[in-house]
């Protein structure tokens, strides 16, 4: 029988959850957890983000969480989409991810171009990511806090008005997200001049005529009338890129698969590795990349992971 319990403070909620751990760990405990999530968020609110009556929260073939349920757990909202913000397709409104979650998500399906995972899910506020394969979920984490940054509202500057010294520019993380959000498509990697000037306002960057013309000459020396992503970031965020490149060039990663697949003696264990972000010139993508390698490269395009004892984890 379902029972609804109300609490007044976070401390009471924390104590209640701790007391329920034995129930969650028992047979069918995962269903108790699922019911708790649904009742907490409200059934009508949960249903409002789903695609009609035919969509389910649990995959009928593999028994795993649907994308709607996973997004509910990660962000507090049900939606089958992984991109940032809202999109309209022939009058049909599609609501994606609206804010940075604490836990992120990377999907092997993006490498197959079946979906687009947005900036929010790729850049959570803690270095923990759910890894999605075709039919299973695993977890990747890192103790390196330099891999993440808290998303803050970017300072706003007005076109044609010099930026006040008191207004600091947005972070590199924000610049990457805002640039990608203004691109015509996920693979475009460039902005028109009009979008570029809009981006300057969003990021609190100098938007007066002199500064804009000087920047255009440096970023678009051939006069192509477009602003490419990497030259833009190199021009405005050279110091941040250099500093973060040093901080994030090598870091520890930990992978967990709840199934004893590929583990010695058939036991479920953590897999430890050292990740390196290679220079694009040095990177030679191997044809022997594992599905996990391909999945990680949707966030870090030149990542290379060396696993302890050369035991490469699986995401299936």
From TrEMBL:
Pfam families: MINDY-3_4_CD. One of its GO terms (biological process) is protein K48-linked deubiquitination. Residues 1-220 form the Deubiquitinating enzyme MINDY-3/4 conserved domain. One of its GO terms (molecular function) is K48-linked deubiquitinase activity. It comes from the Eukaryota. The keyword Hydrolase applies. Its EC number is 3.4.19.12. The keyword Lipid metabolism does not apply. InterPro entries: MINDY-3/4_CD, MINY3/4. Keywords: Hydrolase, Protease, Thiol protease, Ubl conjugation pathway. It catalyses: Thiol-dependent hydrolysis of ester, thioester, amide, peptide and isopeptide bonds formed by the C-terminal Gly of ubiquitin (a 76-residue protein attached to proteins as an intracellular targeting signal). Hydrolase that can remove 'Lys-48'-linked conjugated ubiquitin from proteins. Belongs to the MINDY deubiquitinase family. FAM188 subfamily. This is Ubiquitin carboxyl-terminal hydrolase MINDY. The lineage of its organism: Eukaryota, Metazoa, Spiralia, Lophotrochozoa, Platyhelminthes.
């Amino acid at each position: 029988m379902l029972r609804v319990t109300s609490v007044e403070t976070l401390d009471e909620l924390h104590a209640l959850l701790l007391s329920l751990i034995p129930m969650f760990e028992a047979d069918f405990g995962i269903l108790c957890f699922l019911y708790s999530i649904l009742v907490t968020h409200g059934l009508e609110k949960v249903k409002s983000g789903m695609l009609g009556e035919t969509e389910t929260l649990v995959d009928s073939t593999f028994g795993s969480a649907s994308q709607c349920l996973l997004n509910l757990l990660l962000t507090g909202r049900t939606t089958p989409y992984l991109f940032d913000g809202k999109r309209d397709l022939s009058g049909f409104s599609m609501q994606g991810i609206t804010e940075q979650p604490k836990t992120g998500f990377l999907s092997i399906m993006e490498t197959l171009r079946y979906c687009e995972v947005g900036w929010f899910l790729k850049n959570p506020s803690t270095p923990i990511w759910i890894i999605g394969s075709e039919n299973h979920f695993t977890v990747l984490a890192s103790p390196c806090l330099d891999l993440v940054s808290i998303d803050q509202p970017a300072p706003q500057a007005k076109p044609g008005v010099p930026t006040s010294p008191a207004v600091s520019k947005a972070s590199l993380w924000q610049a990457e997200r805002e640039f990608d959000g203004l691109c015509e498509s996920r693979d475009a990697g460039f902005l028109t001049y009009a979008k570029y000037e809009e981006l300057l306002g969003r990021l609190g960057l100098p938007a007066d005529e002199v500064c804009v013309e000087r920047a255009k000459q440096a970023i678009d020396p051939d006069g192509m009338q477009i602003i490419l992503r990497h030259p833009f970031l190199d021009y405005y965020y050279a110091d941040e890129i250099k500093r973060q490149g040093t901080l994030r060039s090598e870091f520890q990663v930990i992978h967990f698969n709840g199934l004893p697949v590929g583990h010695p003696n058939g036991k479920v264990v953590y897999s430890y590795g050292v990740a390196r972000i290679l220079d694009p010139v040095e990177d030679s993508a191997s044809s022997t990349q594992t599905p996990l390698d391909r999945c990680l490269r949707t966030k870090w395009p030149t990542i290379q992971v060396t696993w302890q004892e050369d035991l490469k984890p699986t995401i299936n």
